[in-house]
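Wed. Picked up where I left off yesterday with Amidinotransferase. The coffee machine is broken again, so keeping this brief.
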Amino acid sequence: MEYAINPWMDTATPVDRELAVKQWHGLRETLLGLGHTVHELDPVPGLPDMVYAANGAFVVDGTVYGARFKHPQRTAEAAAHRAFYEAYGARFVAPAETNEGEGDFTYLPEAHGGLILAGYGFRTEPAAHAEAQEVLGRPVVSLRLVDPRFYHLDTALAPLDDGNIAYFPEAFSTAAQRVLAQLFPDAVRADEVDAFAFGLNLVSDGRHVVLNSEASGMAAKVAAAGYLPVPVELAELKKGGGSVKCCVAELRD
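Structure written out below (tokens, as returned):
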């Protein structure tokens, strides 16, 4: 690991490149096995964090709100993501404000008529929330993150279906916790063990919940809520501060 830009990264901790690639392929095969289409973003030399593809944009109904990364180590990723989405034929809107795509934005089409939940505090600037609302035409609920270990929204909150979420309350400010409790009274609440195992950095299709195999407690919670947990091994990717969701950008055509 050449640099550290979040609390999970440690330049003194080696990453097994071969195993990391194997685990990424395992995630890809899991998604394909569940019937999902998987597009691949070609890697660019010198940009190792591109494996966390969710950070490059945020898509709602085919409109792409692009990313503008906070840290210089990731700045060049934005152009690669833009090229991918434009080749895909989507309407791409370049941002004026700093934001890290689906790292800090998520969309629930059936929650209160359709809501974008947006995190801020470490990477994405609050001004990007207003910009996203104008670009995407959906109401945005701003949620302040307060624990640097959960530096992106997708490390502390995840949609389980089109109208409900799972989240770790203590990652958010007191006011944000009140907002989430009001909006999602039936949410699955994670504890610290779940959150530290990256159990909220998950992807769900409304039935299957693909999540880090280390997060056994979170798997039990989503199973109790009526979903089917699908564990995948991503220990090497976790060393960079990401897991399942970080590796998956949802197109939302």
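Quick read: The chain has one domain: 17-247.
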